[in-house]
Sequence to fold (203 residues):
Amino acid sequence: MTPSGAAAHPHVFAEATLEVAVAPDHVVRSLGHVWRFDDLFSATVVMEFDKNRDLKLDEQELAEVGRTIHESLADFDYFQMVTADGDEVAMKAPERLIVAYEGEQLVIMFESEPAKPLKLAGKVDFGIYDPTFFTAIDFVSDDMMMVRGLPADCRRAVIRPDPDEAIAQNQQTLTEAFFNDPLGTDYSKIFATRLELDCGGGK
Fold:
């Protein structure tokens, strides 16, 4: 999976789960990600990384897949989108990606954490999206976005933006961004499914 510029539509598809772990002091401890890729992309990866041609990926080959994807996603923040009351939250790069091949599908697992302590207050949103539109990452059901240790005073909601409404609500910003930089506009995030935790207060 090596995004190479914007595409008109996705070429790779993955079903995802996200688990946000929260400590008793309301600080976000980690984000746990699992991505299960479509059969076609998974088969392509096998063909590319199966060095001994035994039609499967052994431990060393899986490790190489993990290293390659880890490097290719670094410039894209590993498709993570985290905001606190609308402000972007910097995330640490995961140390490594764990890769498995299960039922003819490539599965990627990794854990990340905020670069600075992130305490739940106001509205904190977590989403996964590919800014190049090359990869479509889908949360099939709302319970695929989970919270472990959700504080009693926080409300959890899964937001699935309607594309037409998202464009209408962001029309002015989108237009200004396009005219400022027609080739570098990245607003695909407004279409991303996200987990929103509303804990009151905020800035």
